[in-house]
Amino acid sequence: MDVFTMTGRKRETYDVQMVYSSLWECALGIAAVTNSRLIDTLEKPYSYWKEVKESLSEELVNQLEYVETNNTWKALLQLLHYTKNENIEAFTTHVQSLDNVRLKFLCLPFVGDRFQDVREKAAYGDERAITALKEITKENPFFPQYIEFISKSEPTELKTHLIKVMTGWYRSVVAPELEATEQILRTDYESKKEMKAKVSAEELVQWATGGIQYLPEPSVHRVLLIPQFVYRPWTIEADIEGTKVFYYPVANESIAPHDNYMPSQSLVLKHKALGDEVRLRMVKLLSECERSLQELTDQLDLGKSTIHHHLKLLRAAKIVETNQGKYSLNRNGLELLSAELEQYVNR
């Protein structure tokens, strides 16, 4: 269907803001060590996590087991969005100052502006609201159980647990490496801040997160980018009022800030992917229109296994994407290449 538009407005987008803190690293470290299903996929090997756990006090290990059972790492992340991320003492003071209902309200997940009253009633312990909130979030693998737990937990016990696990992990794991960790986070923050002046908001999000194309959506006016080292290579996505949050993995060059010759992994992957005649031909073909594997095979007169191998490299570099069996060019990913190269050369 042909559409004739008479609007003169540009499509609205979101504002990107960035923040970093060792407290985010602390909460995400707790999330990582208690995620038994994901821990083998993290960049830090299982032996690292095993060694860390063996070095902890019995009390802290018990608190971590409580986190794993009840997913209270989510509560820590939620609360940090309403805390001045100055230091662990500020976090403790803030949690202690919250009244019972406010504590539970902040810990419960945000699921949209129109459900804020349901969220508040659930914080008061209203059974119908709790059931409704669980139904709204039923597609999430852990939200319903987590909502039940938060809504019915004893506030003083919940506060004590959150403070103990956060301060315990911070002092045992984060504090000994604090200077190095903050340097990594600060370096990545400065890198993203510099790139923000060169690219669009959507391109910045895609570059920072390693390829996530987040398009503007109603009621979301801000994207918050939070660098993290402990949960690499994963990006964690979350929602708070009016804001989409991405806890994204810091770039390789941020880990070695004194090495001005260290390129980003994204830059390396893209140049490797484009450094081949067949793959460049594929990029040209996909710039014309989306194509199936069979169509690319016919056009290039190569075997399907060979074409599939080249497509795998292009997809890993975020230059090509797939949807319902069709391959297409990720133009944003390709257009970012010049900005990434310029930033690397001028760093």
TrEMBL record:
The keyword DNA-binding applies. Residues 259-347 form the HTH arsR-type domain. InterPro entries: ArsR-like_HTH (IPR011991), HTH_ArsR_DNA-bd_dom (IPR001845), HTH_MetalResp_TranReg (IPR051081), WH-like_DNA-bd_sf (IPR036388), WH_DNA-bd_sf (IPR036390). One of its GO terms (molecular function) is DNA binding. Gene3D superfamilies: Winged helix-like DNA-binding domain superfamily/Winged helix DNA-binding domain. SUPFAM superfamilies: Winged helix' DNA-binding domain. Keywords: DNA-binding, Transcription, Transcription regulation. Pfam families: HTH_5. This is Helix-turn-helix domain protein. It comes from Halalkalibacter krulwichiae.
